[in-house]
Amino acid sequence: MPELPEVETTRRGLVPVLAGRSVARVEVLHPRMLRRQPDPVDFVPRLSGQVVGELRRRGKFLLIEVGEGLTWVFHLGMSGRMSITTREAPRHPHTRVVVRTDAGREVRMVDPRTFGFTSVLTADELAESSIARLGPDALTALPSARELASGAAGRRVATKTLLLDQRYLAGLGNIYADEVLFAAAVAGDRPAGSLSLAEVGAIRTAIGRVLADGLEHGGTSLDDLAYLLPDGRAGRHLEYLSVYGREGKPCRRCGAPIVKARINGRSSHRCPACQA
Length: 276
Known about the structure:
Blueprint: H1 11-18, E1 23-28, H2 43-47, E2 52-58, E3 61-66, E4 70-75, E5 81-86, E6 95-101, E7 105-110, E8 117-122, H3 123-128, H4 145-152, H5 159-164, H6 174-184, H7 197-216, E9 259-263, E10 266-270
Antiparallel strand pairs: 1-6, 2-3, 3-4, 4-8, 5-7, 6-7, 9-10
Helix pairs in contact: 4-7, 6-7
């Protein structure tokens, strides 16, 4: 039987497949995916037979209520994705976790590099996890410029490093941090505490615009195609990037060559002419 089209890997896409369904079968095909489960042997029995409740997102985490007081947690890492299909469909060779509902649909976590993880946590475990220490969500709860500036005040850490700190602001990754800083005309290696309120305001405006554009274009699939949409298509945002992955190419704004460097161990791209 041919594989059915897979739905979008977001809260909106998962709701019609999972909400109100019960979990009929759970398979863990790679034990590394349970490394954030306090006791890995708890994962399958905690999830099996549960009815799926509310689905939500916080930063880079997908959170799904299952049963009473339990939360099913997903983090896709750098190369993970969710596949929602039928039980008869051939499995991708890097399928790591399979959860089948009572309707016969399967939620498959595919992750070639196993940087992602999943767990089922009690309320107390969730309160003690890294999720509880996340900052405000960059897409849905972006703080005011003054609040962001207050969090950066006196900080000597590089501005890009602060943007990637999920305790400061949850949801930004390496690609989009570079794009935000270019749009705001701020160099990523600037000490965060050196930014003016106007510069922080420009960063705040850029965050909303960059994330909205990325979502509109289906995300960024790089040449390795590690990230794909659930139906197997590549995200189209790569062609719209201003600086990330464009080292040596002319800046779309001024024509100067884009440069690549490392900031706190992360590859970073900027226009030396446009970003002060």
